[in-house]
Amino acid sequence: MAEPAAPPAEPAALAAVGRVLGAVTGASFELQPILDRIATEAAALCRAETAHVFLIDGDHFKFVAASGGTPEHGEYERAHPDPIDSGSINGRVALSGHPVQVADLAADADYRGSGYTVGGYRTLLGVPIRSNGELIGSFGLGRTTVLPFSDQEIELVSLFADQAAIAIHVARLLTETHEALERESAVSGVLQSISRSTFHLDDVLQTVIDNATRLSHADEGNILREEGGRFRLAAYTAGVPEAFRNILDQLVFQPERGTITGRVLLEQRPVHILDITTDAEYRLPEAREAAGFRTVLAVPLLRDGVPIGVLVVWRLQVQPFTDPEIALLTTFADQAALAIANVQLFETVERQRTELARFAPQVAGLLTSAEGEQLLAGHRREISAMFCDLRGFTAFAETAEPEELLGVLREYHAAVGELSVAAGGTVEHFAGDGLMVFFNDPAPVPDHQLAAVRTALEVRDRFVGLAARWHRRGYELGLGIGIASGYATLGRIGLEGRYDYGAMGVVVNLASRLSDIAEAGQILISQRHFAAVEDQVTAEERPAVTLKGFGRPVPVWAIEAVRP
Q1: Domain span at residue 309?
Q2: Are both 205 and 248 inside the same structural domain?
Q3: Cα 537–538–543 angle (5° rounding)?
Q4: Do 495 and 440 belong to one domain?
Q5: 368 DSSP assignment
Q6: Which of 37, 114, 200, 267 is deepest in the core (most CB within 10 A)?
Q7: CATH number for position 87
């Protein structure tokens, strides 16, 4: 079973976004170096051999930037734009409007693009680049081996696509207006505030509204942000009266036409009211009197087509906002939405990292001693490796909502992780429905072969209750477990800023293959492992099996119980 690459850790992701935004602020909005930097950072962060950026030109995708890949593939892409059809990853992104992944190009009979034939890639991922809701390009990653991208990697690549969209939109806007120099300075200041490693959202939103108000020649403005189903005041310019702020704090905005915020939520596009005093639908005179506004412009903060906030600016005299001013306000709204999405993403990653870190407390202790540093550098030790895989997960994932999918995985990971750590095991990684644990390293575990078997039985028993609860919701899931023991090489693996503590060797591969063939509710162990525990367990010898990567049939035993 191919194991997806480990998801990028929050510090590495945050640093990559910071470098991208640093390139944006330092490139005088020349588009090419910005797109080159985005491709380079995305490829490195998601462990891809190549990243490509394509922009729509008429009815084809034009190759504009890349990181990695062969010169021949780059030349081919420049000379052969992809049409908008199902024969390429770019065409499929355009047709679906969503991220598209091809797990194995060699097995996709309908694929005609150059990724496999010229580029030599096996797994491709493409995500849409949108500006103001319009598809303007495609951003893709490729791997030369069959190794699908994880959901979190797809989310991060989508974030980089959003950065590309913002850069493209800003670059185009600033070349079309005579106020380019002043606006470049202002937008650069916003991007610099977003790229700071502290990521203080309040500071970012304050920078956005101050610059948006000044450059649109408005008198005042504010930003409302969705929190817990309500849109609350998140930032405002210095001159906004306290009486007006108090009124907004008491309101619950809904999609309707009685307020400008409600109208934006309803229409999900900029709303421009020339004179609020003559607008028959406006029903908040106390707010108008408190702030004194006459001409009002409101722009939605959209994330995946859903409003997560509203940016509002106004003038105290009747004076319409121009089209360039409305376009600039839309850019600032995009920046505010991006800042909010960045913070939410990294908060989620940090929370997950903190939760999962408790499943490997032994590894954290290695950093505090000289002996631990030696272990991290690499060593050999006999271990017992245990792999767990869900049966029926693929069918479940194809029909379940994302929230249901994540809920099931959280319960499953928590159950296996807690029982494994309690038995002295080290959880090496979570990979969707797959999970690996090993025993006897870095801390010694007496009778680690028996400890692995006991843990597997406890996991199987715990899973019975989980499966019953999921069954009542209509989910049919089972659990297969494979265990093997033997010598492995263990230590720190990864690259600067993204390290894991892992095990490598035949024993790991064998346990993984056994979990692949285990039926729901079955625990399969290797011959060597059975020899270590045969006097303490009840097991049934199964016919030898042929496993991928092993030249001869492998003897297998199915564990039934530990003897009293």
Answers
A1: 194-332
A2: yes
A3: 115
A4: yes
A5: G
A6: 37
A7: 3.30.450.40
Closest listed residue to residue 305, CA positions, set 267, 348, 345: 267
CA distance 388 to 413: 10
Task: Report the alpha-carbon distance of residue 94 to residue 85 in Å, rounded.
Answer: 8
Indicate if 267 and 386 belong to the same structural domain.
no
Give me the amino acid identity at 554.
V
Q: In Å, how far are 7, 389, 445 from 430, measured between CA atoms?
A: 9, 10, 22
Q: Does residue 391 contact residue 479 with C-beta atoms inside 8 Å?
A: yes
Q: Are residues 476 and 557 in the same domain?
A: yes
Look at residue 169 and give its three-state secondary structure.
helix
**How far apart, in whole angstroms, are the C-alpha atoms of residue 71 and residue 69?**
7
CATH of the domain at 472: 3.30.70.1230
Q: Give the pair of three-digit tokens for residue 229.
A: 């189903």
Q: What residue ranges in 279-369 does DSSP mark as E strands? A: 295-303, 306-315
- The amino acid present at 382, given as its one-letter code, is E
**Strands of the sheet with 82-83, listed across from one edge:** 82-83, 60-68, 50-57, 134-143, 123-131, 100-102
Q: What is the pTM of this model?
A: 0.39
Question: Are residue 300 and residue 200 in the same domain, yes or no?
Answer: yes
What are the phi and psi torsion angles at 534 (to 5°)? Answer: -60, -30
Q: Is residue 178 a part of any domain in this protein?
A: no
276 and 400 both lie in a single domain: no
The token pair at 57 is: 């030109």
Both structure tokens of 429: 């990684």
Q: Does the residue 5 lie in any domain?
A: no
| Any domain includes 3 | no
Give the end of a domain, one of 140, 173, 206. Answer: 173
**Domain-embedded: residue 487:** yes
Looking at the fold, whether 246 and 309 belong to one and the same domain comes out as yes
Are 310 and 365 members of one domain?
no
Pairing of strands 478-495, 523-526: parallel
